[in-house]
From TrEMBL:
This is AMP-dependent synthetase and ligase. InterPro entries: AMP-binding_CS, AMP-dep_synth/lig_dom, ANL_N_sf. Belongs to the ATP-dependent AMP-binding enzyme family. Gene3D superfamilies: N-terminal domain of ligase-like. Residues 165-174 have a biased composition (Low complexity). It comes from Hydrogenophaga taeniospiralis CCUG 15921.
Length: 266
């Protein structure tokens, strides 16, 4: 057996992949515009490869820009929160990068919690709006009606490029102004615990935290642009939302996003 190295072990941390989420995505879209970054399958489709959808780096950046503008037109401003209630969905990744551009925070709700626990989280983080997928549409509508009637509620389809005109689309087309603060210090992700020792507690993650996680994980795991990684972890968990999908974007390789399953009845 080899002798153990002297303690403490000194490790030089790797350099951050970029100075912000926006800079990271912009660089990938410029250097590798056709590199696939995100791949997912419609759960209602048949199991053929043609049913898989793909976003390359250029398309992802375009989608992020559109969502950021849409959120800004909804009145979202730096420091405000957007909550998500749903199963794993590619829109969560787009939403995370769009909120980084706006200086706002994503609050992914644990879909395994009870409605009372969701209400407690929303009361604590006071989001500007709540987005939901089709699977939890009824739960989201009931949550807002019972506990937060003033909260703006939107389906995930509002983030799609085919945003309808009329009442669903804001009148202003103004783009969000550039931010002047340090993006590495800017909070981006607010993840709540399951509340095993009381009420769920929120943990704030800055862009710097998440970018450092990408760099360290890529160094330890030896990831490259040739890798394809299946993400089955729930995106409401920090290991799912903050680690895996963002880590894949660090190296511009493909992330296969799997729809998390609902818990079985007890």
């Amino acid at each position: 057996m080899s002798p153990l190295p002297p303690w403490p072990v000194t490790v030089t941390p790797p350099a951050l992949p970029a100075g912000s989420f926006d800079a990271l995505l912009g660089r990938l879209a410029t250097q590798r515009p056709t590199q696939p970054l995100l791949r997912w399958r419609d759960p209602a489709a048949t199991s053929t490869d043609a049913d898989w959808a793909v976003l390359d780096a250029a398309a992802l950046r375009q989608r992020v820009e559109g969502v950021a503008q849409w959120l800004h037109r909804q009145g979202l401003r730096p420091g405000e929160r957007v909550a998500w209630l749903g199963l794993n969905h590619p829109a969560q990744i787009v939403l995370l990068f769009a909120l980084a551009r706006l200086g706002a925070l994503l609050v992914p709700l644990n879909h395994r919690l009870s409605p009372a626990e969701w209400a407690s989280v929303l009361l604590d983080c006071t989001p500007t709006l709540l987005l939901h997928d089709d699977a939890l549409a009824a739960a989201a509508q009931d949550l807002v009606r019972r506990a937060h009637p003033a909260l703006a509620l939107w389906p995930v389809h509002a983030l799609e490029p085919s945003l309808p005109t009329g009442d669903a689309a804001p009148a202003s087309d103004a783009s969000p102004p550039p931010l002047t603060d340090d993006p590495l210090q800017r909070p981006l992700l607010l993840v709540y615990t399951s509340g095993t020792t009381g009420q769920p507690k929120g943990a704030v993650h800055t862009q710097g935290n998440l970018l450092a996680n990408m760099a360290i994980a890529a160094q330890v795991q030896g990831l490259s642009e040739r890798d394809v990684v299946a993400t089955a972890l729930p995106l409401f968990h920090v290991a799912g939302c903050a680690s895996r999908p963002c880590r894949r974007c660090r190296w511009a390789h493909r992330c296969c996003c799997s729809r998390a399953s609902m818990p079985a009845p007890c």
